[in-house]
Write a structure and sequence with these properties.
229 residues; 9 strands; three-stranded mixed β-sheet; single chain
Length: 229
């Protein structure tokens, strides 16, 4: 930090002199008054005012993109720790790896993506129709958001299960669509959670011969594939 000691008849004159010499404005420096000076008696014993002026270090404000990256890195680390603690509570020995969120997950608002690797029994973590995995994902998102201070959606996967399941669902959608196109009869798929129904809808949204719709309530909600009229 650049500093300068200046003397003058008064403190104000010393400040003006220091600012002129440094080429700085008043709000760019810190000023310490070492002595306010003294007029003396009839000019005898007078003492000039003495100050120490220090140039303030400029505040470095990172670009918005850098701030966002720092915040995202912090949220990712928090989410990873939350998931590791959940697995420990479930007495599951596994590693948690940070993965880039796939494009479709980003579109759905997920900013953090974690994959559980090396678990002895992935079936326990996935559960029936992925229900256990969805519950783990929901709890991880909830706790992470509370710790971060804002809603932060965390995608949780197990050994790439979600991507494999999506490929399987797209293949199923294509096969059933071909059958519906041939028979001209609607077909209902098994009950699925919302994210899986969305895969079916997206896979067939531009199909020339069939349409899709969801029907049912709660856990029994399923996709109906029907021929276009």
């Amino acid at each position: 930090m650049e500093s300068l000691e200046v003397t003058a008849r008064t403190v104000n004159e010393a400040i003006e002199k220091a600012l002129a010499r440094l080429g700085k404005s008043r709000d760019e420096v810190d000023i310490s008054v070492l002595s306010e000076g003294s007029r003396g008696i009839l000019g005898i014993g007078s003492e000039e005012a003495r100050i120490l002026v220090s140039v303030r270090e400029p505040e470095v404000i990172p670009p918005a993109s850098t701030k966002a990256m720092v915040n995202l890195d912090a949220a990712t680390e928090i989410a990873r720790n939350v998931l590791e603690n959940l697995l420990a509570g479930m007495r599951v020995s596994a590693e948690v790896a940070v993965k880039p969120p796939p494009p479709e997950a980003v579109e759905e608002g997920f900013s953090v993506s974690l994959d559980i690797e090396g678990a002895d029994d992935v079936g326990i973590l996935i559960g029936r129709r992925g229900e256990t995995l969805s519950a783990i994902q929901f709890i991880t998102t909830l706790i992470t958001s509370k710790k971060v201070g804002k809603w932060t959606k965390v995608l949780v996967d197990v050994e790439g299960y979600r991507s494999r399941r999506e490929i399987s669902l797209r293949s199923l959608a294509t096969r059933i669509a071909s059958r519906v196109q041939e028979t001209r009869q609607p077909m209902a798929l098994e009950a699925m959670p919302p994210n899986e129904r969305r895969v079916i809808h997206l896979a067939l949204q531009n199909h020339p011969a069939v349409t899709t719709a969801s029907t049912g309530e709660g856990d029994q909600r399923r996709v109906i594939i029907s021929p276009k009229r």
